[in-house]
Amino acid sequence: MDTSAEELRFSLPEAGFDRSQLPAGTGEPGTGSFRQTVTAFFQNAYRSRGGRLDVAFSEGRIDVHWSGAQEQQDALQRALALIEQGRRPEARELLETLLQLEPGSSEALYNLGLLCSDAGELERAAELLERCVALDPTHANAWVALGMAGLRGDTPEQARPALEKAVELEPGNPDALRAYGTLLLMQHEPREAVAVLRRAQVAAPGDPVVLLTVAQALMAADLDAHAAEADQLLRRVLELVPRGEIAEKARRASQRIANHNLRRSQGEGLRPMVVDGLRQALQIYEGLKPEQRKAVLVEVSAIGEKGLPVNQPLIAYNLETLPGSFSALQLACLIEIGARQVLGMADAGFGFEGEVQEALEEYKAGP
Are residues 234 and 212 in contact, defined by beta-carbon separation less than 8 angstroms? Predict the structure, then answer.
């Protein structure tokens, strides 16, 4: 984009300056400390733009004059571009300045509210977003953001009206549906959550967060009835995002399903197949050198990240670090024992605590 000389002038009353944007203890309008702090505020806001900035005070007014070579785009577009570039502090300063000039800019209120919400400043975010929806009651995404601020603040009772309004305004908005479904799940209404989240899935079939939340809602509604569908959704999540927080949540949920299915197939109490698998893992590790143990654990853990169907004994895996073939349950047992013996962890998250103790006792007792 071509650059050319740009100039910006504006004036506002000292008494009308939003003092919530200034540090605590700033003096009253008209005092030297107040004017010094306001000057620093505008200097910070325009620092990223370069050029020359003059701030003057006369007859109770603040006169700001900035000039320099800048891209020809308005302040809001510049702020959005900064957000896209990950330069959020600079974008925030620009949005704060824009609101000083245009307190009725719903888009500035919305985007600044998002930034504050992401930064954990939930009260400030809610205040900005409430101003936004008061100015533009049809701004569905602002209602979503207001609801999300409530969810982040663990106040679902405050989030609910905002999210219901968002869904009412845009029944096909996947963000609104996902957030509302999450709210219903938090408020222990899993069946209602499933119905809403299925609509979100239709609107955004490739969104891993939506797929994960649908699976979680299905599990909460009726794990026995929905285990297969939920597990299929979780596998799709791991295909889309094999790493990160979402993937870790999907793996934990998938493991819960696997443990549930395994326990159902073997009844209550200790699971003999798990005890046998853990005892075999103990024997395998005992016959390996320390570096070999680590190599085995690395390999089986990498396979485990993709999910292990421990209730399907016919699925076999071949390893580079060990001879023979192994079932998914045997790999889970190798991960469990490896995590304890190689990494010194308390457990690997499979829920095998009782079976581990039994396997250790049997292994110590010998054949």
Answer: yes
